Amino acid sequence: GGQRQRVAIARATVMAPAMLLADEPTGNLDHASGDEVLNLLEALNHRGMTLIVVTHDPEIGRRAARRLRMMDGGVVADSREAAAS
Fold first, then answer.
1. Domain enclosing residue 11, as ranges
2. What is the DSSP letter of 18?
3. The whole model's pTM is what?
4. 26: burial class by Cβ within 10 Å (0-12, 13-18, 19+)?
5. Is 85 inside a domain boundary?
6. How large is the average pLDDT for residues 25-53?
7. Is 33 among the domain residues?
8. Quick one: which of 67, 65, 59, 68 has its CA closest to 27?
9. Residue 71: left (phi > 0), alpha (psi -120 to 50), or beta?
10. Average pLDDT, stretch 12-30?
11. CA triplet 16, 37, 61: central angle to 5 degrees?
12. Tens of pLDDT along 71-84?
């Protein structure tokens, strides 16, 4: 599980973009595979890549330092948390 997502991430990052958009990156994965994909994305973020992750899973959202909540096409909440040390 997760092989397609890892290949897609590799293709998307081969040119070292400043930003990566991930739309439901764990949507069809079991928990363990999803966690591996999220760990990979977080490693890219720690190396300086900006991540925009679209998800309906609040557990994934809680892993982010900044969260934007959208409803009916607009931002209804913008929260930031201090980065973990």
1. 3-80
2. S
3. 0.82
4. buried
5. no
6. 94
7. yes
8. 59
9. beta
10. 93
11. 100
12. 999 999 999 876 55
* Count of domains forming the chain: 1
8 belongs to a structural domain:
yes
Q: Is the pLDDT of residue 12 over 90?
A: yes
CATH code, domain carrying 34 = 3.40.50.300
75 within some domain: yes
Query: In terms of residues, how long is the chain?
Result: 85
In the chain, where does DSSP find H-type helix?
3-13, 31-46, 58-61
Q: Which pLDDT does position 83 carry in this prediction?
A: 52
Query: Most distant CA pair in the chain: distance in Å?
Result: 35
Place of tokens 């040390």: 85
Per the rule left: phi > 0, alpha: psi between -120 and 50, beta: everything else, 69 is beta
